[in-house]
Amino acid sequence: MSLNRSRTIAAALIAVGLIAALACVAMFPEVEGLGGRVRLPIFHGAMTWVNLVAFALLGIFAVGSLVSGKPSIHFGEEGLRYVSIPLWIIGSALGLMAALNTWDFTGSKSSRFEVVAADPRLMAQFWIMLAGLVVLVVCMMLEDDRKVASVLDISFVGFAWFVLLRAILGPGRALHPDSPVLNSDEILIKALFFGVVGSLALATFAASWLIASWRSSRSLAAADASGEA
Known about the structure:
The protein is mainly α. It has helices at 3-27, 39-68, 71-102, 112-117, 120-141, 146-169, 187-228. The protein has one domain (3-228). Helix 2 (39-68) runs antiparallel to helix 3 and helix 2 runs parallel beside helix 7 (187-228).
């Protein structure tokens, strides 16, 4: 199979994954109290699950690239980096929107933003997003230094998991709810949620492969141009 055809298939998988994810969200039943507003936190939750898997794979590929020095592993690392971090930024924005639109602020003397800012999970999302932006900028500036990029990716993934686990397991939770899907007895709710997770995973990893492919081709072209010069 030619590279162009593989890229076309990857692009098609991205579109199929996104459409399927939105379709599953649209079919998600309304719930008492929130009605159709439940669909936004469901989509955000599914995106977070996929993002965490992508972060874990980013760390694994970064370690592999640092240890082996193989270009193919490095390009896989780049693909995961340039998809997972922007995805987290989008997910953080959706998480804030979901909190402001679905949490119960009744009886609170503070503003909605103050209450949200006091929630450890949302603050964890913010700090991970900030760290991710730093990693993206530095890696773009030091594009040719693969070892530094791998060390940054490993550090970022370790930081992200540390901050997130501390927010989940530590004290001081505000209004962030436990997973309504995992606590539900409705098979349809779980099926649609995992349909969103699977569809987003398909789109995410197809996009990661596509970027890795582009980065690999770009590197080979640059090497050929340098050799001719």
